[in-house]
């Protein structure tokens, strides 16, 4: 692999033990160092392979190549969002504040209604995938979505505000097959300050 890699594994903004008891040190370390790293490696290998094919004037199977690249880049990008919208546990109830709190109240009627819809979205995601809070700039509207794998059912051009990884590799060591329990505990470690910053930035 070329030393000048386009994509690198980002460092976490907290320690591996800092999300306990909701995500264990072992679970977080494997998720970050093994699974996320594999998407970074996959994207870099594919880009290098394409560059080599251009130099040698050979052809790739573009359908297969682009599908694999989308999968690996999507995995890298979504995980990078995920790490930053988590934070160590604080005392007290973890709830949104600022502009994002106002927008959630306006769109969903209440924070409890938002939690209900987002949790059902996460639990019902088919197979491996993500629950996502999006922002539609055109209509100044929040929307919830599911992304299957890393790259299916995306809303093109909608801005990502918050993601929850519901691939089994995100929770299996801690929760086994109890995805709903993992989703329920996610509310304790959301970094609402980061979500609010993303919202303010994208709202302009």
Kindly describe this structure.
By secondary structure, this protein is mainly α. The chain has one domain (24-204): minor pseudopilin epsh fold (3-Layer(bab) Sandwich), CATH 3.55.40.20. The chain has helices at 25-56, 62-84, 98-108, 111-123, 172-175, 179-186, 192-203, and strands at 129-136, 141-148, 159-165.
Order of helices and strands: HHHHEEEHHH
Rounded radius of gyration (Å): 18 Å
- Beta-strand content estimate: 5-15%
Strand order of the largest sheet: 2-1-3
Q: Show unreliable segments.
A: none
- Shape summary: globular
Count of the separate structural domains: 1
- Tell me the span between the first and last alpha carbons: 39 Å
Using the coordinates above, name the CATH class. Answer: Alpha Beta
Q: What is the average of the pLDDT values?
A: 95
What does the largest sheet look like? 3 strands, antiparallel
Specify the structural class: mainly alpha
Question: What name goes with the CATH superfamily?
Answer: Iron/manganese superoxide dismutase, C-terminal domain
| Helix content range | 40-55%
Determine the number of helices (DSSP H or I, runs of at least 4 residues).
7
The CATH topology name reads minor pseudopilin epsh fold
Query: Which architecture name does CATH use?
Result: 3-Layer(bab) Sandwich
Q: What is the β-strand count?
A: 3
List the helices and strands and how they pair.
Blueprint: H1 25-56, H2 62-84, H3 98-108, H4 111-123, E1 129-136, E2 141-148, E3 159-165, H5 172-175, H6 179-186, H7 192-203
Antiparallel strand pairs: 1-2, 1-3
Helix pairs in contact: 1-2, 3-7
């Amino acid at each position: 692999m070329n030393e000048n890699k386009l994509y690198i594994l980002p460092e976490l903004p907290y320690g591996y033990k800092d999300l306990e008891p909701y995500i264990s040190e072992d679970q977080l370390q494997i998720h970050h160092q093994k699974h996320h790293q594999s998407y970074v490696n996959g994207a870099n290998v594919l880009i290098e392979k394409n560059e080599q094919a251009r130099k040698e004037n050979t052809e790739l199977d573009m359908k297969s190549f682009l599908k694999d690249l989308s999968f690996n880049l999507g995995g890298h990008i979504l995980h990078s969002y995920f790490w930053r919208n988590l934070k160590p546990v604080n005392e007290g109830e973890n709830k949104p504040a600022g502009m994002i709190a106002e927008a959630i109240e306006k769109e969903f009627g209440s924070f409890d209604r938002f939690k209900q819809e987002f949790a059902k979205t996460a639990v019902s995601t088919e197979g491996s995938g993500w629950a996502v809070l999006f922002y539609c700039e055109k209509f100044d509207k929040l929307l919830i979505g599911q992304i299957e794998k890393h790259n299916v059912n995306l809303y093109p051009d909608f801005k990502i505000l918050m993601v929850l990884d519901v691939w089994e590799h995100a929770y299996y060591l801690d929760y086994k097959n109890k995805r709903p329990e993992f989703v329920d505990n996610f509310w304790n470690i959301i970094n609402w300050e980061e979500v609010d910053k993303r919202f303010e930035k994208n709202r302009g």
